[in-house]
Amino acid sequence: MSDSTVIEPGERTAEELLSGLENGERFVVRTEVLGSIEELTLRFDGEIYYCDSPTILHKHTDADEMRECIEDLGFTRGDE
Questions:
Q1: What is the mean pLDDT of residues 38-51?
Q2: The pTM is what?
Q3: How many CB atoms lie within 10 A of CB 12?
Q4: Rounded-to-integer distance, Cα 39 and Cα 31, Å
Q5: What tens digit of pLDDT does each residue of 11-44 get?
Q6: CA 23 to CA 18: how far, in whole Å?
Q7: Higher pLDDT, 54 or 67
Q8: Which residues fall within 8 angstroms of residue 52, CB to CB, at 6 or more apart?
Protein backbone atom coordinates (compact mmCIF):
# COMPACT_ATOMS: atom_id res chain seq x y z
CA MET A 1 0.00 0.00 0.00
CA SER A 2 1.34 3.44 -0.88
CA ASP A 3 1.63 6.38 1.48
CA SER A 4 -1.28 8.78 1.54
CA THR A 5 -1.20 12.54 1.25
CA VAL A 6 -3.31 14.17 3.98
CA ILE A 7 -5.28 17.18 2.78
CA GLU A 8 -7.97 19.50 4.09
CA PRO A 9 -11.26 20.02 2.21
CA GLY A 10 -10.85 22.74 -0.42
CA GLU A 11 -7.08 22.46 -0.57
CA ARG A 12 -7.04 21.13 -4.17
CA THR A 13 -9.20 21.35 -7.27
CA ALA A 14 -11.12 18.35 -8.56
CA GLU A 15 -8.70 18.09 -11.49
CA GLU A 16 -5.68 18.08 -9.15
CA LEU A 17 -7.23 15.30 -7.09
CA LEU A 18 -8.26 13.21 -10.12
CA SER A 19 -4.86 13.64 -11.76
CA GLY A 20 -3.12 12.57 -8.56
CA LEU A 21 -5.38 9.54 -8.19
CA GLU A 22 -4.75 8.48 -11.77
CA ASN A 23 -1.00 8.77 -11.10
CA GLY A 24 -1.23 6.38 -8.13
CA GLU A 25 -1.57 8.87 -5.27
CA ARG A 26 -3.94 8.29 -2.35
CA PHE A 27 -5.46 11.20 -0.49
CA VAL A 28 -6.81 11.28 3.04
CA VAL A 29 -9.25 14.13 3.54
CA ARG A 30 -9.79 15.19 7.13
CA THR A 31 -13.23 16.63 7.63
CA GLU A 32 -15.65 17.25 10.47
CA VAL A 33 -18.71 15.00 10.58
CA LEU A 34 -21.25 15.53 13.34
CA GLY A 35 -18.74 17.29 15.56
CA SER A 36 -15.86 14.85 15.22
CA ILE A 37 -12.97 14.58 12.78
CA GLU A 38 -13.30 11.80 10.23
CA GLU A 39 -10.78 10.74 7.61
CA LEU A 40 -11.99 9.76 4.15
CA THR A 41 -9.63 8.07 1.72
CA LEU A 42 -9.68 8.81 -2.00
CA ARG A 43 -8.01 6.19 -4.18
CA PHE A 44 -8.03 4.64 -7.64
CA ASP A 45 -7.09 1.04 -8.44
CA GLY A 46 -6.80 1.51 -12.20
CA GLU A 47 -10.46 0.64 -12.81
CA ILE A 48 -12.56 1.87 -9.89
CA TYR A 49 -12.38 5.14 -7.96
CA TYR A 50 -13.03 4.88 -4.22
CA CYS A 51 -14.07 7.39 -1.57
CA ASP A 52 -14.19 5.56 1.72
CA SER A 53 -14.21 5.92 5.46
CA PRO A 54 -14.61 3.41 8.27
CA THR A 55 -18.40 3.65 7.80
CA ILE A 56 -18.98 4.30 4.06
CA LEU A 57 -17.62 3.09 0.75
CA HIS A 58 -18.42 4.92 -2.45
CA LYS A 59 -17.30 3.24 -5.68
CA HIS A 60 -17.23 5.10 -8.99
CA THR A 61 -16.58 3.63 -12.40
CA ASP A 62 -15.34 6.78 -14.11
CA ALA A 63 -13.68 10.12 -13.43
CA ASP A 64 -16.91 12.09 -13.94
CA GLU A 65 -18.67 10.13 -11.19
CA MET A 66 -15.70 10.62 -8.85
CA ARG A 67 -15.54 14.34 -9.64
CA GLU A 68 -19.24 14.69 -8.78
CA CYS A 69 -18.77 12.77 -5.52
CA ILE A 70 -15.81 14.79 -4.25
CA GLU A 71 -17.47 18.06 -5.29
CA ASP A 72 -20.73 17.08 -3.54
CA LEU A 73 -18.78 16.21 -0.38
CA GLY A 74 -17.13 19.67 -0.47
CA PHE A 75 -13.59 18.33 -0.86
CA THR A 76 -12.57 20.48 -3.83
CA ARG A 77 -11.45 24.03 -4.27
CA GLY A 78 -13.94 25.86 -6.46
CA ASP A 79 -11.60 27.84 -8.74
CA GLU A 80 -11.67 25.58 -11.81
A1: 94
A2: 0.86
A3: 20
A4: 6
A5: 999 999 999 999 999 999 998 777 888 889 999 9
A6: 9
A7: 67
A8: 40, 41, 43, 58
Give the total residue count for the chain.
Answer: 80
CA–CA distance, 14 with 16 (Å, rounded to integer): 5
Per-residue b or e along 43-79, where b marks 16 or more CB atoms closer than 10 Å to that residue's CB: bbeeeebbbeeeeeebebeebeebbebbeeeebbeee
Can you tell me the distance from the alpha carbon of 76 to that of 21, in angstroms, rounded to the nearest whole number?
A: 14
Nearest C-alpha neighbor of 10 from the set 75, 67, 73: 75
Distance CA 42, CA 72 (A): 14
